[in-house]
Structure formats: structure tokens, C-alpha cells
Amino acid sequence: MLKLNNISFYYGKIHALKSINLEIPKGSIVSLLGANGAGKTTTLKVISRLIQPSEGTYELNGDSMLKTSSSNLVKKGVIHCPENRRVFPLLSVEENLNIGAYLRKDKQKVKEDYEKICIMFPRLKERLKQVAGTLSGGEQQMLAIGRSLMGAPKLLLLDEPSLGLAPNIIQEIFRTIKKINVEGTAILLVEQNAHLSLEISDYSYILENGRVALQGTPEELRGNKDISKLYLGV
Amino acid sequence: MIAQIVVSGIIFGCIYGLAALGMVLIYKTSDIVNFAQGEMAMIITFIAFMFISKYELPYIASFALALLFAALLGAIVYILFLKPIQSSTPISLIVLTLGLYMIFHGLAGLIWGHSPTSFPRALEGSPFQIGSVFITPNEIFVVIFTICLMLLLFALFRFTKIGLAMRAAAQDMMASELMGIKVTKIFVLTWALGSLLGGVAGMLIAPTTFLHPSMMAEVLIMAFAAAVLGGFVSMPGAVIGGAIIGVFGNLVSYFVGSELRIVFVFLLIIVVLIIRPTGLFGGTQYIKKV
Known about the structure:
The complex is a heterodimer. Chain A is of the alpha/beta class. Chain A is 38% helix and 26% strand. Chain A is built from ten helices and ten strands. Chain B is mostly helical. Chain B has a two-stranded antiparallel sheet with strand order 1-2. In chain B, a hairpin with a 2-residue loop joins β1 (128-130) and β2. In chain B, α2 packs across α8, α9 (217-229) crosses α10 (235-255) and α9 packs parallel to α11 (261-275). The interface between A and B is medium-sized, with 27 and 17 residues.
């Protein structure tokens, strides 16, 4: 459904992305792994149109997206759940969820999605009137994901959902991600936690210094001893 | 006598509150303190006067046209001056809006001169008596109009989608963009509204201060004081802050002397800020207060 071809991007003089090729098939989970500063978040920002690449092509369902606004991309169902959760700290949980559906006109469906998200994250449901800034890290991550789901994503871009969370919460978040995928949403998962990501991914890209260093199915990546050592820390 | 002083204080306070509302709206949403708010209001009032005296339009039509101009002025000021440097430091933004203050003031003097002109009231009619207090229809209009505008803004911010987007944009521009909110559009709208509120304040105070380039000098200071007293984030806070300052200022004028009014108003603010650093309506529960 989504295809990046030869995408390059510069932050000033720093060549942050070097000819990235990446493909996300419909309904799949693709993970984008690599160390800090490898270009993972920058790739997501290119996809959600927060930044304009200097070179390359970007297609969604066959159409070029390089002139589309970020707002339009949200309308098309490509929704970016940013790093560090970025929930609106002074809005209530309920308002945070509502704003995820900002562009949607199908009120009835929005209501249904809202109910569904409340069931998916019972802890959010208990805190609907609470201000988001007072939630724990794990709850904020759930809220960030819930907020993205309110936009009815066809492709969900998740930037480091495990960042700074306790292991049991991370497990819970990953189970939720898999569940969202099973229900039909394609996912691009950016992570430093390679092990867990490979467990739920259909395909993975490993970025290094702005380049795709490796790619393959989880089996292929795990099978290669050098790779495991270098990138997966086994 | 005291009742009369209090009532006329409330009426002045409403106008301070209106000017403060515009500033609070702009600050809450775009995180910019607009020092040029008063001078923008003064220019809008001059435009209204142009419609009234030169084109001989009725008051209501001139008022409406001036508000249209106000919205445009606010939008243009934001797009032309603030947007390009919005990611800059707060101090640069302050210097920029202070610069705009000087520019607008200078331009108005150049175009319209400095001699005060009289400006008509919204409602004519002689004062009538309620108890021991004399009050004019225009004064009642000022109070009701201010309260309506405040409630309208409060509802806009609290209950509408666009209000939610305004609050979100104020907290996190990037995350708002990712929700599909066009943040620039929201800020343009905020500035248009803020400028409009200032314009209303300008046109309502002009019959008292007379129309001239410095007419908003004291109103701006008082509006600032009102906004700070209200916590700078609360809409009802801005209007209530305005009313407190209006009444307090009037009482000081009567009992101490009018030349000490501003001194005492700021003493009051210092005392309030020492006791409650976040203002009367700011602080921990400010989200609930809008």
C-alpha cells in the first residue's frame, strides 16, 4: 500500500536519509529497527509529510504523496503516533481521544470506534475525565495509540511505543499492536526493542546511519548469526 | 456615592476585560503576548470613525465593518510578522510585538494626527436612576455585551471542535499537525478573534477617552493587569480581573486621588501575585476554568 523509493533527506548539511527504499504491504506489520540517530523517526516524518524529502518518490496506493499536506494524509488514513507519546497534557483523556477524530465526519462510526477503544483500554475508560498529563507513562502510551485509532487508520505509524516503559507494560502494548493489526490495520513499527518487534513483524528493515543496512523476514534476520550479534544484541 | 463609583468601575472594568480577553485568547493559543493589542484596537477604532464620519454610515454598520477590518488586521499581523519567527525565543516575540506597538502608534499619528476627536456611543439616551445609582443605556449595553462575548468565547473554547483544536495547538503544535489540525489556520483564526475583541474594546472606550493615537495607552496597561490578575489563561478570569481593577481603580481615585490610581492597581496586583503566584483563576485548575 505504501512505497518509498530512493528517499533522501538532509537536516542542514547532515545527510539523514540516504536513498531509503521501503514498502508496506496492505495489512502487514513492518518494523523499522536501528540505533538512535539511524533515521527511523525521520523516515516516519517523511511518511506523515511533516518534512519534504530532497529526492525520491513516495506512493500511497499508487498515488504520489509528495505534494499532499499532512492533514490530507490523516484523511487518507495514514496516522502517525509520535515518539514520546505527545498526548495533550492539559486536555482530558476523553478530549485527547476526540481530537484523534478531528477530521472525521462519520459521527456514528466515530462513536463506535470510541466505544471500541474504551473496551480495548479499560484503564483509559476509568480515567476519561482526568487530565492526560497526570497519567502514567504506560497509560499515556495507550492514550496515544487510542488517539491514533480514533482517526480510523489504514496504516498506523508507531514511533517507539515501548520507550521508557516497564517490561510488563511493553508486553501489553505489543499485544495490543498485534491485535490492531489482526483487525485489519497495517502497521509501521519503529523500535529499538528489536526482539519483541521481530516477534510480531512480517518484515523488517534495519537502518544504520540513514541507510537501509538490512532487510528481511524475522526468520531471515534471526537466522543470520552476524546480524543477530550486531543488531539484535544476542 | 460608593454604589455609583462601584457601578462605573464595573463598566470600565468590562472594557479592560474585553481587551484582556483578546490578549488571553492569543496567549493561550499561540503562546505570544501581544503588546500591540491596544494599538491595533486604536487603529480599528479610527477605521470605524472613518466609516461613521467620512462615509456617514450608521453606527452599527460602521461597527460591523470595523470588526471585519479587525479580523483581517489580526490575521495579517500574524501571517506577516509572527508566523515567520514563531519558533524563535519568547524574548524575540516580545520585542517584535513591542515593535509593532511603536509602528502602529507612529503610523496612526502620521495618518490621523494627535488631536483628540469625539467618538459616538453605541446607544444614546439619558441616564436613568436605579436606587441611588445613575446609569446610561450605553453603559448597560457595555456590560451585557462584554458578558455575552465572554460566555461565547468560553463556550467556543470549551465545547466546540475548533476550540478543542485551539487548545491542542497551544499545547503541542506537532502532535496537533499529526491529528490533521491545520495549526497555521488555527493561529490565524485566533489572531483574527483576538484583534476583533480588542477592536470592540477600542470602540466602546473611545467615547470616554476620545479618539487619538494614545487612547489605548492606559487601557492596555489595565487590560494587562486584568489578564495577569485573572491568571492570563482564564477567560472569565480576564473579565472578572477587569471588573476588580475597574472598581478598585475608581475607589482609589475617589478616596486617594486619581493620579495614584495606576500605582494602587499595580500594588494590588503585586499583593495578589505574592499570595497567589498564578493569579486568581490560574494555576492548578486552570484547565477546568478554560
